[in-house]
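All the exercises in this workshop are built on plain-text protein records. Instead of coordinates, the fold is spelled out as a row of discrete tokens. Once this layout is familiar, the rest of the handout is easier to follow. The record below serves as our worked example for the rest of this section.
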Amino acid sequence: MTTPAPALNPSEVQVGTPNGPGIYLAPAGTAPPDNTWDDWEPPWKILGYLSDDGPTVGQSVDQEDLTPWQSAVPLRSVITGRSITLQVVLWQLNGDTIALYFDADPGTEDTDGLLAMELRSDSPQHLYAVGIDSRDAERVLRLAFGRASLSDAGDMQITRGAVVPLDCTLSALDDAGVLANIMLGPAEDPTAARRTGRSPAADKAA
């Protein structure tokens, strides 16, 4: 029996450039777009500039080995816990980004442009939906957490000659059995091309 060779497909190599703004936040439970070409409509909000490192998705698994009396080697390794996180360094300071960093209620600017916020000790933890949108040529990668909360925050370094960073890590929470939604597909609606016989880009130009 011959072992099939792995497929070497350069079109499946993805470069992590943003698809437009690329980072979105919404109230917990907000569904992401149904596909990889529709826009992120309200109540999704753009979170603005990120550091040049971009977003980082992390995953960790807890396991327990089941080792019998008769052996020094486990018979099974059972997964007992799993977590998925999204870490970003926000570069824009406004009511939404500062609230996310401090896990506080969002602030609003008054008519004079003044933003004032209170960090309260009796405030409950806040829940969010968060989405990442990346595009390489005509291929889009989207990842969204339907329910997430702030699980870690880095230092806010206020340094001369440098951007003030808001380093936030969000952890995905269970949403009726779903931790995250992942989509990988075309950047343009393929049905539009089939209906017109032309590419969506050509239709837009016309």
In short: Residues 14-205 form one domain.
